[in-house]
Amino acid sequence: MLYVDLAALVHDALARDDQQGRTDENIAMLLDRDNFELDSLYSQWITDPSDPKVKAAADDRKRRGIKPSPRPLIYPIALRRQELADVYIKQYTEAVQRYSTPESDRKLTLADVLRMRKR
Fold it and tell me: Above 70 in pLDDT, residue 104?
């Protein structure tokens, strides 16, 4: 009967480890978003919308056809497992690259073509 109790304890410990991994990732994602919000608020505090340099930069982006992304681009700053960190950093850099170049200069990807077909 002891082996059944031991098996139940091991099973429970493994389940707790699995839950801890999900909890850690959820906390890391909250930290990323909190950092994004603080950075956004700080840039709003220090940026004067009537500054000629700010207006010139906005006009330049509009003239070149650079539009902001439909979703916020959140840099993954939280400490997480290396394989997850690599995936999130790669996704972030690809999104920044996609939305930092004018649409006319951008090559269409398969995802862009499929998105256009759904419209």
Answer: no
